[in-house]
Amino acid sequence: MKRREHTPDEREARLVALTRQLFAGEISEGRLLRTLRREVLGLSQEDYARLVGVSRRTLSDMEGDKGNVSLVVMNRVYRPLGLRVGLIPRQSALLERLFGADDGASG
């Protein structure tokens, strides 16, 4: 069954929704990667691995939250999705302050 092509706005909305789930601790990095690869790009593991220059096994391990890959590899894998690896707070309250609604404090 052929997947329906999504508009750029639909792809961006899905990316934002899933990234919010990641920040909320509702999904893992691997789940985010797998879902975006399949739903947003519509690519198989083999095709995506070839695109980003990693083995299918490495991609599979990343999607399964297994293995130990470098930041360079992680950034290479996430780049086509418009994402990069970075630091985020572990405490949800601080995360909400950083990414939540403007609380009126300006810098």
From TrEMBL:
Coiled coil spans: none
SMART domains, sorted: HTH_XRE
SUPFAM superfamilies in the cross-refs: lambda repressor-like DNA-binding domains
Entry-linked PROSITE patterns: HTH_CROC1 (PS50943)
Domain HTH cro/C1-type: 33-88
UniProt GO molecular function: DNA binding
Superkingdom assignment: Bacteria
Pfam family, one: HTH_31
InterPro entries: Cro/C1-type_HTH, Lambda_DNA-bd_dom_sf
Protein name as catalogued: Transcriptional regulator
Classification lineage: Bacteria, Pseudomonadati, Pseudomonadota, Gammaproteobacteria, Oceanospirillales
